[in-house]
Design goal:
Blueprint lengths: L1 H45 L4 H8 L4 E11 L3 E14 L2 E2 L3 E10 L5 E10 L2 H8 L3 E2 L8 E5 L2 H4 L7 E6 L13 E4 L1 H4 L6 H13 L1
Parallel strand pairs: 7-8
Antiparallel strand pairs: 1-2, 1-5, 2-3, 2-4, 4-9, 5-8, 6-9
Helix pairs in contact: 1-6
């Protein structure tokens, strides 16, 4: 009986290991797509009237968190979330990317599906540390201030200070978007993969071209 249980456990472990191995190429493709999208988001920021302010802030930033597709949808009960990449400042360059997921829940009359691009400019060590340690929740309880740098010339002149300043490109419900209650968690399986390939290098070079 014990031998039978042991054989079953070994077989289950083999199946689990096989499934994990099979999922690695899919996750690698997912990583590549996310990095390409993040690069596109940085390019979109460069062509926004708010870019001049964002460029100045990047000079003293501790890191950036880029979320290319934050999706919001649903009727009555809504939810929002998206995958993103964090790059730390390293002298005049940027580190290899690390991967984090952002999500929150909300309640209200939210019809349809909407999407936005976000670039968080992380200005303080405590904000960066909170994100890197995982399960980081934005809001008053975290003691972290998040200031919006909205798309458009007017928004570009109003974002000053803040542990994190976020540039937003979106419409509809994303006008005046707030992040209270949003949670940022590391994507452990993506972070276990090597992230220094051509897509990552292009993203780092694109950010370095800003400053």
């Amino acid at each position: 009986m014990l031998k039978h249980i042991a054989r079953m456990a070994a077989a289950a472990a083999m199946v689990a290991g096989f499934a994990l191995t099979q999922s690695l190429p899919a996750r690698a493709d997912e990583m590549s797509e996310l990095l390409v999208d993040a690069n596109r988001t940085v390019n979109n920021l460069k062509h926004d009237p708010a870019f001049a302010t964002a460029k100045a802030m990047l000079q003293n930033a501790k890191a950036v968190y880029i979320v290319p597709k934050l999706v919001k949808g649903g009727f009555i009960f809504g939810a929002e979330g998206g995958d993103g990449v964090v790059l730390r400042r390293q002298g005049h360059g940027w580190s290899a990317p690390k991967f984090y997921t952002m999500g929150s829940a909300s309640f209200g009359l939210q019809a349809g599906l909407e999407q936005a691009q976000l670039v968080f400019i992380i200005n303080s060590d405590r904000a960066l540390s909170g994100i890197e340690h995982g399960n980081f929740k934005l809001g008053a309880g975290a003691g972290i201030t998040v200031v919006n740098l909205s798309s458009g010339a007017e928004g570009a002149t109003t974002a000053h200070g803040g542990d994190m300043v976020v540039w937003t490109s979106g419409s509809g419900a994303y006008a005046g978007l707030t992040f209270n209650g949003s949670v940022i968690k590391p994507d452990k399986s993506l972070n276990a993969l090597p992230a220094n390939g051509p897509d990552a290098q292009r993203l780092r070079a694109n950010l370095s071209s800003i400053w």
